[in-house]
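Late entry, written up from scratch paper. The run itself happened at the end of the previous shift, but nothing got recorded in the book at the time, so transcribing now.
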Amino acid sequence: MSIIEELNEHEKRQLEIMDFYNSGYTYEEIAKFMFMSVNTIKTIVNTWIKKITYNISKFYKAKT
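Output as recorded:
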């Protein structure tokens, strides 16, 4: 079983949003594709960016 198969539907949608975002789509375009509001897309993207930044920072602190 792959990691993707273990994700719930909400997590899969978040991953799909981040895939669009990383491919260069705008918040507005992603919102249209996903049938969601622009503010929801912005919140999801910003939350992921904060989590990634925090985890990278935590990783480097553990290495030193």
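The CA atoms of residues 46 and 52 lie 10 Å apart.
(Scratch paper discarded after transcription.)
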